[in-house]
Amino acid sequence: MTTVPAVENYHNTYTFTTVDLQGPGTHVRKLCIVSQVTSGFELDDSPLDPSIVWTPILQSGYSTGCTDITEDSHTLIHTDPTAVYDIVVSGSSDQETYGFHGGQLKPCPPDPPPPRDCADWFAKGSRDDGIYTVDDPPFNVWCDMDPFGCGGTVIQRRTSGSLDFEREWSDYENGFGDLDGEMWLGLKNISVISSRRNHMLHILLEDWDGVTAHASYSVFSVGTEDTNYELTIDAYAGNAGDSMGPVGRYDSSGKMFTTTDRKNDDNGVFNCAEAYSGGGWWYPPGCGYAYLNGKYLRDCNPHCDPSQGVVWQTWRGAGYSLRRTLMVIRPQGWHCILHTSFSLTEPLAGPIQCILGAPEALSG
């Protein structure tokens, strides 16, 4: 008897050819299947003979069943792509016998779901800041990983004023800038990431004296295009003051995104994006206390035009345009300690220490 060594075939289809028996007498060819399931098999595009008797293999969870086959090439398939089975093909005549073992047929391991955000990459062991691919269909993001980023997905970064944020709807929808520099990730991408699971937002700010502050919102999401990317934001914490949440004077939660060419704010004929230096934002009535996508100003602080600048009013006031900003989102439950020291020679990134655990374990 000829035996073919067992092999692992990562598919749920097996094609084999019986040996041409030359000896005299009756030629018998059999196909035997060893499987945890006894239904769903098809032989040569037809359901396997339902009269096959399946015999349990003691204490294995498997059964075996055999059927006669012709001298030919045959294809066995299981309609369930996750089925695992084994086959043995044998034949005999008065003077010859043969057999071979098809090997265990394993299903194609399903592709693991793509990482939903940088936190998934962090959970997979990635620790280097950089560009990563997330979601399906895929797109690239900047992940704030190490030493303190703990899987944050950067959605906005301003460091030098090299990138113009006075842009129209299509740019804010699709994103602009360089992921490793000044950038806006894009409303479409932010909406996708925040829809995959509950997220929180961390906003990191730096003034021109190197002083830093932060504002965190443990509830954060951005709606779909059908909602004009409506913002949901709540549960403020931090030392920069609440310039966006529903507890503050100007509530950005529930507001749609507005740009110079797409007015969605609640200010009558007045378009806040046009009035506030062209930056797109979730403007509330009165245009609000925060516009981090405003015009980048350097030499007017603290007496800049209140309708201009990169502004977080509850921290430095309406007339102060900030030097650096960073907006990072993480899944809820990824608890981090915010540190208030940034390097002035490096892009603003990574000032958050990750602690995976209960909120009460946090300190600092």
From TrEMBL:
This is Fibrinogen C domain-containing protein 1-B-like. One of its GO terms (cellular component) is extracellular space. PROSITE patterns: FIBRINOGEN_C_2. It comes from the Eukaryota. It holds the Pfam family Fibrinogen_C. It comes from Branchiostoma floridae (Florida lancelet). Residues 109-333 form the Fibrinogen C-terminal domain. Gene3D superfamilies: Gamma Fibrinogen, chain A, domain 1 (3.90.215.10), Gamma-fibrinogen Carboxyl Terminal Fragment, domain 2 (4.10.530.10).
